[in-house]
Design a protein that fits this description.
Length: about 130
C-alpha cells in the first residue's frame, strides 16, 4: 500500500498546522467576521495589483508595503483580542475588524477607479473618495 504523504509533506502539514493554530489563537479564532476581513484584504491586494498594472506602476516596493499593511491589520486584530481578554468582552475585536473591513472596501473601490473602472462608480462616491485622499 502506497503512502499518502511523504515525510517532507507530513512535516509541512505539522508545521503549518502549528503555525495556523497559533495564528487562529492570536486573532481570536476564524469566524465569519474575520473571514470577511481576509476576503476583503485579498481582494484589495489583488485589485491594487491590477490597478498598478493598469497604470504601468507595478514595482515590488509598493507590493511589499501592501503586504505589510495587511500584516499590520492582523496585528491590530490581535491587539483587539488581547484587550477583549482583559475586559472579558468581544467588542474590541469586532470593532477593529469592522473598521479595517470598511477601509479595505473603500480601498477596493479606489483600486477599481485607478484600474479603469471609474465609470461604474457613482460620481458622488468618486467625489467623496477624492476628498478622503485629499
Amino acid at each position: 500500500m502506497a503512502n499518502l504523504y511523504s515525510k517532507t509533506e507530513i512535516k509541512i502539514i505539522a508545521v503549518s498546522g502549528i503555525i495556523g493554530g497559533f495564528m487562529a489563537a492570536a486573532v481570536g479564532g476564524f469566524d465569519k467576521q474575520l473571514l470577511a476581513l481576509f476576503i476583503l484584504m485579498v481582494v484589495d491586494y489583488a485589485t491594487g495589483m491590477y490597478a498598478a498594472w493598469h497604470e504601468h506602476t507595478i514595482f515590488s516596493k509598493r507590493g511589499y508595503q501592501g503586504i505589510m499593511k495587511k500584516l499590520s491589520i492582523l496585528v491590530a486584530v490581535s491587539f483587539g483580542v488581547l484587550v477583549d481578554m482583559v475586559l472579558k468582552t468581544d467588542f474590541c475585536r469586532y470593532t477593529v475588524i469592522a473598521g479595517f473591513g470598511v477601509m479595505e472596501a473603500i480601498s477596493i473601490i479606489e483600486n477599481a477607479d485607478r484600474g479603469g473602472y471609474g465609470h461604474v462608480i457613482p460620481p458622488v462616491i468618486r467625489k467623496h473618495l477624492k476628498e478622503l485622499k485629499g
